[in-house]
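User: Assemble these into one structure.

Assistant: Restating your components, then the assembled model:
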Amino acid sequence: MSLRRIISRGQIRRRLKELAANIRADYSGQRPVFVCVLKGAFVFLADLVRQVDLPLEMDFIVASSYGMGKTSKGQITVLKDITTDISGRHVILVDDIIDSGLTIQHLREHLTNRRPASLRLCALLARERVLESGTVVEYLGFSVPEGFVVGYGIDYAEQHRELPDIYVIEDE
Ligand code: IMP
Ligand code: MG
């Protein structure tokens, strides 16, 4: 198993600057609540919120994960919920990578039930496939082809989250 770098820290930094500027323009005069999907999105959230330059709030949610495997089990549950009352608030859901889109679909419904004023999705990465099939990601870092991705907060079996760049795992 080896790692091939697909997105550098420099590319991430430049793209986040653009995303932050878009968010700043769209939410000017508001105080959005960023809901970070743990664990994978924590590095992305930390870098993003420091560039948005608006008053904002943060909360964290944990959905059932892939465990130690590489494929989705299809059944998603909320393991740790947010504590913020988001009714009437502008919410930005922040995730690391949208693969099948199932997790985010479940979390969107889960949060929509609390009647936020608005709810948008911000993801560092999304599969080209899921974007083509109509999943809307209002703030997207990069679209990525198939292949298991790690680094910049994203893990494989809890490994490689600490890497500053983004890699794809290749089986030799
Ligand atoms: P989905 O429900 O299939 O969209 O999968 C969503 C979650 O699975 C993501 O938020 C990640 O935590 C995890 N995941 C999906 N693809 C990858 C990958 O390539 N590397 C690491 N985690 C992944
Ligand atoms: Mg995730």
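The pocket of inosinic acid (ligand 1) is lined by residues 40, 66, 72, 95-104, 148-149, 154 (CB under 6 Å).
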